[in-house]
Design goal:
Shape: elongated
Number of helices: 6
Order of helices and strands: HEHHEEHHH
CATH class of the largest domain: Mainly Alpha
Strand content: 5-15%
Structural class: mainly alpha
Oligomer: single chain
CATH superfamily of the largest domain: Winged helix-like DNA-binding domain superfamily/Winged helix DNA-binding domain
CATH architecture of the largest domain: Orthogonal Bundle
Low-confidence stretches: none
Distance between the termini: 22 Å
């Protein structure tokens, strides 16, 4: 799937499915009610839309629908990260890191982690 652009609702459903899959409609209704206070109708409507978009797969076992994600978490994360960078920072990782640094939003451990990521990228290990 290219150009993944998930709504918050879609993220919530997929997060449940990435944790445990497949799930029945009622399992998802229960999980999303606990997490977000969603009504059964909200969950069912969201699932139908996601199925139409190809984000989830539905298998019928008797009269029971079992849902699974149709994309991996890492696919969604990469797509959403690129979308976020493009929208907020005009595609610039440098602008994003600069904004975080200026706001003093990075801990020493996070700065060290960034250095390590950049070192690996420079060496072609990523």
């Amino acid at each position: 799937m290219d150009n993944i652009n998930l709504t918050n609702s879609e993220w919530y459903v997929l997060d449940c499915l990435w944790e445990h899959s497949p799930m029945t409609v009622m399992e998802l209704v229960s999980a999303l009610d606990r997490r977000l206070g969603w009504a059964k109708s909200t969950t069912i409507t969201t699932l139908r839309r996601m199925e139409a978009k190809g984000l989830v797969l539905c298998a019928m076992e008797g009269r029971t629908r079992h849902y699974s994600p149709n994309l991996h978490r890492d696919q969604a994360v990469r797509g959403e990260t690129r979308s976020f960078l493009d929208k907020v920072y005009r595609g610039s990782v440098g602008l994003m890191v600069s904004a975080l640094a200026e706001d003093r939003a990075l801990s020493r451990a996070e700065i060290d982690e960034l250095y390590e990521i950049l070192r690996k990228a420079e060496e072609g290990q990523i």
